[in-house]
Automatic annotation (TrEMBL):
Top EC class of this enzyme: transferase
Pathway terms, separated by semicolons: Isoprenoid biosynthesis; isopentenyl diphosphate biosynthesis via DXP pathway; isopentenyl diphosphate from 1-deoxy-D-xylulose 5-phosphate: step 3/6
Chain ranges of the GHMP kinase N-terminal domain: 69-145
Alphabetical list of InterPro entries matching this protein: GHMP_kinase_C_sf (IPR036554), GHMP_kinase_N_dom (IPR006204), IspE (IPR004424), Ribosomal_Su5_D2-typ_SF (IPR020568), Ribsml_uS5_D2-typ_fold_subgr (IPR014721)
GO biological process terms held by the UniProt record: isopentenyl diphosphate biosynthetic process, methylerythritol 4-phosphate pathway; terpenoid biosynthetic process
Species annotation: Tepidiforma thermophila (strain KCTC 52669 / CGMCC 1.13589 / G233)
GO MF term list: 4-(cytidine 5'-diphospho)-2-C-methyl-D-erythritol kinase activity; ATP binding
Protein name: 4-diphosphocytidyl-2-C-methyl-D-erythritol kinase
Gene symbol of the encoding locus: ispE
Pfam family, one: GHMP_kinases_N
Protein purpose: Catalyzes the phosphorylation of the position 2 hydroxy group of 4-diphosphocytidyl-2C-methyl-D-erythritol.
Residues engaged in binding ATP: P97, A98, A99, G100, G101, L102, A103, G104, G105, S106, S107
Top-level taxon: Bacteria
Amino acid sequence: MVERLAGPAPAKVNLALDVLGRRSDGYHELDTLFLELELADHVEIVPSEAPGLEVSGPRAAGVPAGRANLAWRALECAAFGAGADPTFRVRIDKQIPAAGGLAGGSSDAAAVLLLAAKLWPQLVPRLPALALELGSDVPFFLTGGFARGRGRGELLEPLPPLPMHDVVLFPPPAGTQAVERKTAAVFAKLAELDSRPPAVSSVLELARGGSLSTEDLVGANALEHAALAVFPWLQEHRTRIEAVIRSPVVLTGAGPTWFWIGPSGSGDAVAHCAREAGLEVIVTRTAAR
């Protein structure tokens, strides 16, 4: 009898994101560069006579419970695919800010699928399809690392690992109002705005040189100008961050988390300046794989 299965659920940033158009199925055709971070939730599956979901940790606030949580739906999907009952309890120690563009919920779901595949090995060939059923970002976290994602993001091309970089994340300030279905709202706003030139290929070329800075990524996220229109406080937050750290920051995904990236060893100084000014920061690094 399995007593406990556990694993990490890492965050990601998008180094670049192009939106190529709306598809007939309602989804958008994307071209993006996913980059895994060391920052991670911790996910456990334990046998239980009272199946369900427990969320704890410093970033638990705002995380949905029950079937609204992708991690629980991942366990249900896995159990159904294996012809088993989901007689397990999912425990998540949240370290990744919720609904911040870092895909913590998608990563939790992928972690559950990977753990479930240890329980039910017959699921392994079906993991990519199960992941895509749960969400467009979920397939990336089955392998992580550095990858180019096309289609909805599920057509993944693994890329050579980047050298270690420091990453400083700037979550939304306390008290800012959340936007309901924020990703859908950002894509809807994008349809009203002028399109931006593609950026993925140029950022990928810079990445092949082995070193990236935030300056290389400015303007590389096609969703950024739409997110600025959706979140009324987002521009002011960026302006404050950039004035303090004297460097640009860029948005990950649909936001609203800003991030800075630079050489290994340089992030602590950036974070120190930001904290001295009263900004909330999370210091992490790119994952070593």
